[in-house]
């Protein structure tokens, strides 16, 4: 309230634009000071950055989140190796670490025993518990809340801008849950794709009213036929090839990774959330497009020359490029995120037919 009253008080003293006198702003990066030079200084001062920690009270190793450079003894919030700018409260959350058993603050302790409850711990366990409380991701809660955290992570992956602003470069990636996420997504793809193929066949026969229109009681039979149809697995195999080529294409930009000193595990995390996470959606989205095609041709009477598969792939590629760009820009903090995202998808799409064409020759089938 006090800030609002002071803003109203000095607003009367702001000169009219036609008679305004040019003044040098106190801070060129502060838009309020530039637009309203009469604002009191205490209303426009930026929040000060966190001071460097007392390294004598930090009993664990501290490295740069992006390149791994040792930061112990540093006072400037900038990595001397890769130039990453950060906040000390994110890089060294020493004041937020508590005992997982009783909640006692562990700041200033040197030995690994809680003085309140006597519980022994390791600093790696304490840091893992800190990130588990802070982030609702499957990476950190896969042992305690596997299903709930997986669904939350999958839902966040559908909102790339929100996801990559929530995940910070200082949140350490966890390899095992990331690989588990990849495995679950691949299994879901190879189950849903044939099932949606059988569902599409059932919907087509009902829409065109062939010799005998199947009823709802026959729907499980059509889905089982799709699951036991070997040709139905060609489509998910092509999708999986594109996913693998996307990771390979991202690894091609080694020079950019070396310049920013980005580690491979961080690129792997971006790939999992941006590309792998949409695998269960591809069969569902394909069925929706097939249903729209049937609706346009049968119900509306608008006959299309081809199905809507190119439209579906176009929408999915735009989403993947958007998510990759957000990950490179906000999480990895690398320049030219859009260029890397577009180039990686072009390389992946061109590599899929080349790989499928050369695979029989490698296996000696031609």
Mean pLDDT, nearest integer? 76
β-strand amount: under 5%
The run of helices and strands is: HHHHHHHHHHHHHHHH
Q: Name the poorly predicted regions.
A: 1-33, 38-47
Measured as a percent range, the helix fraction is 55-70%
Radius of gyration: 28 Å
Euclidean distance between termini CA atoms: 79 Å
Please count the beta strands (DSSP E, at least 2 residues each): 0
Main beta-sheet strand count, sense and barrel state: none
> Structural class of the secondary elements?
mainly alpha
Count of DSSP H/I helices: 16
Number of structurally distinct domains: 3
What overall form do the CA principal axes indicate? Answer: elongated
Explained architecture:
This protein is mostly helical and 366 residues long. It has 3 domains: 2-44, no CATH class; 55-144, no CATH class; 164-362, no CATH class. It has helices at 2-11, 31-35, 41-44, 88-91, 123-134, 138-141, 146-157, 160-166, 175-208, 219-227, 234-252, 254-260, 264-274, 281-300, 309-331, 337-362. It is elongated, with a radius of gyration of 28 Å.
Features:
3 domains, 366 residues, 0% strand, 57% helix, disordered N terminus
Summarize the structure.
This protein is mostly helical and 366 residues long. It is 57% helix and 0% strand. Mean pLDDT is 76; it is low at 1-33 and 38-47.
């Amino acid at each position: 309230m006090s800030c609002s009253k002071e803003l109203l008080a000095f607003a009367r003293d702001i000169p009219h634009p036609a008679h305004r006198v040019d003044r040098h702003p106190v801070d060129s990066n502060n838009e309020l000071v530039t637009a309203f030079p009469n604002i009191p200084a205490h209303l426009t001062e930026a929040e000060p950055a966190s001071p460097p920690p007392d390294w004598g009270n930090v009993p664990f190793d501290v490295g740069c989140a992006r390149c791994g450079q040792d930061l112990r003894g540093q006072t400037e919030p900038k990595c001397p190796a890769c130039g990453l700018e950060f906040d000390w409260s994110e890089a060294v959350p020493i004041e937020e670490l508590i005992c997982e058993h009783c909640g006692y603050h562990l700041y200033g302790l040197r030995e690994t025993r809680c003085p309140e409850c006597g519980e022994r711990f390791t600093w790696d366990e304490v840091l893992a518990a800190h990130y588990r409380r802070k982030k609702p991701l499957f990476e950190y809660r896969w042992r305690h809340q596997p299903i709930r955290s997986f669904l939350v992570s999958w839902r966040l992956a559908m909102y790339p801008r929100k996801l990559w602003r929530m995940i910070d470069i200082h949140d350490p990636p966890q390899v095992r849950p990331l690989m588990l996420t990849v495995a679950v997504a691949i299994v879901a793809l190879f189950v849903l794709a044939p099932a949606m193929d059988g569902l599409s066949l059932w919907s087509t026969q009902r829409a065109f009213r062939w010799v005998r229109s199947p009823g709802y009681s026959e729907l499980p039979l059509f889905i089982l036929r799709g699951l036991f149809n070997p040709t139905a697995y060609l489509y998910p195999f092509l999708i999986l090839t594109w996913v693998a080529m996307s990771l390979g294409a991202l690894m091609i930009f080694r020079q950019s990774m070396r310049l920013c000193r980005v580690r491979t595990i961080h690129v792997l995390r971006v790939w999992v959330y941006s590309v792998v996470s949409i695998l269960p959606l591809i069969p569902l989205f394909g069925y929706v497009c097939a249903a729209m095609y049937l609706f346009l041709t049968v119900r509306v009477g608008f006959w299309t020359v081809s199905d809507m598969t190119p439209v579906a792939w176009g929408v999915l590629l735009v989403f993947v490029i958007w998510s990759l760009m957000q990950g490179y820009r906000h999480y990895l903090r690398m320049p030219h995120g859009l260029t890397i995202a577009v180039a990686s998808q072009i390389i992946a799409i061109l590599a899929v037919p080349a790989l499928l064409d050369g695979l029989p020759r490698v296996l000696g089938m031609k």
